[in-house]
Amino acid sequence: MNNWRIISEDETAFQNRREAAQLLCRQLEEYKIKKPVVLGIPRGGLVIASEIARFLDTELDIALAHKLGAPGNPELAIGAVVEGGKIFLDEDILRHVGADEKFIRREVKDQLEVIHERAREYRAIHPKVKLKNRIVIVTDDGAARGLTMQAALWGIRHENPEKLICALPVAPSDAVKKLARYADEVICLRSPAHFMALGQFFQDFNQVTEEQVKEILKESVVRKK
User: What is the pLDDT of residues 176-192, one digit of tens each?
Assistant: First the structure.
């Protein structure tokens, strides 16, 4: 039996991230009494995670993962790094983009600096939630190739959760199936046949700012008290 669920192949755009999150909540209602930890990948994923955590009346946290860009094409991910310094590399992509060991070391160093700086800022506001023996739901505002989510799942798995769930508003079916190798369950609301970019599936896909991320984390801390 597959451990992944695609709810629809509909290509209709969500109104915004909050609407997508509210629709995801319906698929996660069974976990309401189980008090999972909901992790969002900043920045957009934290908007999704905040809505889910509020609906499930449970803890919110961030999943810090940052992609490693290819030589001459920083938007193409060759891998990712996660909080704590763990590194994931996509060997298939590496073989095609000419990323040598020196380039990879430099890119890892640069992106780890970004991760560590963000961790310092975020953790000053919101201490890390322990994930061992907890049900963990990790989300983002979608996935294209799924590499950043894959790295996040890989890093979270090393913290020994009881169950690891990936919940996404939208992703291509091949990304969903790939992510299912790293999670116990993958739920994707929409997996359109023609997938070009995440932005095409949101009427409002405005960039989430660092200030908004920090405000969500502050609200979460207040809500837990």
Answer: 999 999 999 999 999 99
Fold annotation for 4-66+127-224 = Rossmann fold (3.40.50)
Q: Where does CATH 3.30.1310.20 sit in the chain?
A: 67-122
**Radius of gyration of the chain, Cα coordinates, nearest whole angstrom:** 17
pLDDT tens digits along 9-58: 999 999 999 999 999 999 999 999 999 999 999 999 999 999 999 999 99
Query: Residue for token digits 């994707």?
Result: 188
Q: Which helix (H) or strand (E) holds 26?
A: helix 17-27
Q: What is the domain class of 67-122 according to CATH?
A: alpha beta
Contacts of 101 (CB under 8 A, 6+ apart): none
DSSP string, 118-150: HHHHHHHHSPPPP-TTSEEEEE-S--SS-HHHH
